[in-house]
Amino acid sequence: MTDHTIRGFKDGDEAAMLVFAQALPEHDLLFLGRDLRHPRVVAAWLAAIREGWIDSVVAECANDDGGSAIVGTAAVVRDPLGWSGHVGEVRLLVSAEKRGAGLGRDLLEVAFAIAGQRGLSKLTAQMTPDQTGSIALFESLGFRAEALLKNQVRDAGGTLHDLAILCHDADATAARRRAIGLE
């Protein structure tokens, strides 16, 4: 039984997203290109959703005060006007306390469904090579390492980190999902 609900990320979720992002280790945010802990970044994300460039969901769990808290998020970022309009970038974040419990897999499955709805034939994901749990999750669902960009991102302390790019043939996954009745 899951203890989370997955729904679309929407206007009104800004404060909850900032609380979620503030609790993440900085290292988890390096692949995003922008620091999600800043309100302007969250505002730009929501604007991109409204404009149709990003599809995004959040996972929520009940908290002690009877409300709910964001514990994970997935986004499929695309540029339908560019040369790579057939490609979507998957961005996945899960709170430290929910890792290893299947939440990341559930969010990634939603990203696959979004990719199918958007007609994307290729998915990419970026992460630092030391994020072995994330790499294992993505590889278990068919992603494969395709590139390593040396010294691509710099953390707040000035340390440079490599960035791994994993890719997935979304058409093949969609065909498998249809064959077993999941789509």
> What is Rg?
16 Å
Question: If helices are DSSP runs of H or I spanning 4 or more residues, what is the number of helices?
Answer: 6
Structural class: alpha+beta
Give the terminus-to-terminus CA distance.
Answer: 22 Å
Read across the widest sheet, the strand sequence of neighbours is 1-2-3-4-5-7-6
Q: Characterize the largest beta sheet: strand count, sense, and whether it forms a barrel.
A: 7 strands, mixed
Topology pattern, helix = H, strand = E = EHHHEEEHEHEEH
Strand content: 25-35%
Provide the CATH topology: Aminopeptidase
Mean pLDDT: 90
CATH class: Alpha Beta
Poorly predicted ranges: none
* CATH-defined architecture: 3-Layer(aba) Sandwich
How would you describe the overall organization of this protein?
The structure is a single chain. The chain is of the alpha+beta class and 183 residues long. It has a single domain (5-179), classed as 3-Layer(aba) Sandwich (Aminopeptidase), CATH 3.40.630.30. 34% of the residues lie in helices and 32% in strands. The protein contains six helices and seven strands, in the order E-H-H-H-E-E-E-H-E-H-E-E-H. Strands 1-2-3-4-5-7-6 form a seven-stranded mixed sheet, sandwiched between helices. Helix 4 (103-118) crosses helix 6. The chain is globular. The model has no long low-confidence stretch (mean pLDDT 90).
